[in-house]
User: Fold this.
Amino acid sequence: MAASEHTFSYWERTAFTDNADVIIIGSGIVGLSAALQLKKQQPGLKVTVLERGFLPSGASTKNAGFACFGTISEQIEYLKRSSEADVLRLVDYKWRGLRRLRENLGDTNIDFHQNGGYELFMDNEADRATEALDHLTYFNNLLRHAIGSADIYAVADAKIADFGFKGVRGMIYNPYEGQLHTGKMMRTLLNRVYENDVLVLNGCSVNTIEHTGDGVVLATSQGNFKAPKVILATNAFAAQLYPELDVVPGRGQVLVTKPISGLKLKGTYHFNGGYYYFRNIDGRVLFGGGRNIDFKEEATWDFGHTEAVKNQLVKYLDEILLPGQPYEIEYWWSGIMGFGEDISPIIKEVQPNVFCAVRCNGMGVAMGSLVGEEVASLALS
Ligand SMILES: Cc1cc2nc3c(=O)[nH]c(=O)nc-3n(C[C@H](O)[C@H](O)[C@H](O)COP(=O)(O)OP(=O)(O)OC[C@H]3O[C@@H](n4cnc5c(N)ncnc54)[C@H](O)[C@@H]3O)c2cc1C
Assistant:
């Protein structure tokens, strides 16, 4: 008899560990959105979420809080890897995902603001800038029905000086991009699932998933759990349980400065093809990226920092974002995203009665609500 079989009392087994109709692994935006949808579709369903971290410990509480559907350079990059129809589908999915997130949680609760977004082109990025400008009308036409307007991307070079940037040759503005407070988003989402009587257990790492005659058994760091159905929402970590899934981890390193008096920037900003991003938050600058400095080193499940990325972020702060402005960095952290060859998430049954919803390709704030909904519907179908 396994040691874990002695661990839980009768009461714990019948009220906590063995009574779930569906167990969700992972309490990120996808796992919690799936929980919410399960309860919406079947209010009587018993849903348990198992999370290995003290807090959600992947990307959902570590990201930049951009409520964005993509810069022109990102769309061009997707177009090179995929079809026009796929690019359009992805933008539409992210746009609808953001609307659903806002409907579910409420703009005030998550500090959502549609301050617009900018793509910056550096002095040494003439080719990238030209390519983006050449595609401006094309993408405005392609995305007009998804976004509900043809005035999406527009040249905004005149604003470069207003923001105080240096070394920037051009800028494209998109008024439909927004920003939110990631921590408040996840707290509100957690509150929503608690209100719906979902059990969320932290500090519980799922080590193996096995099928028995009467359900799916999860061996965890806290003992065994059992349910008729399981949803895997572990994103970057999916291959730890199902190595055949095409999900490669990608670490993102982020900093936040102390408040800066007279800070001019407002909105979300991307440059270098989206590999660097920054925004204002509470009078501070949040700045992250640099995964492209060493893709191999950043393809890791380990949180942490590298000197190479940290130094590059500080250099860009000094030379481009805040030239001549005194600032101090107050926070550093990292989060782990899940990437793959295909730009779409993986939502499917991986084994009988085990359904996965993983690989948001670094865009889970935008698409996570719908990804969670889809897998919940699949699990109930
Ligand atoms: C630095 C950074 C910046 C980003 N910026 C943005 C942005 O601005 N806009 C945007 O749209 N997206 C952004 N993203 C991406 C976005 O955060 C993710 O796509 C999204 O959070 C993924 O949600 P998820 O629920 O699929 O995964 P996660 O949030 O990673 O959740 C998976 C959970 O599963 C848990 N888990 C893993 N394995 C196990 C196990 N074996 N047992 C139990 N629990 C387990 C993990 O601890 C984790 O909490 C960013 C990501 C990072 C890292």
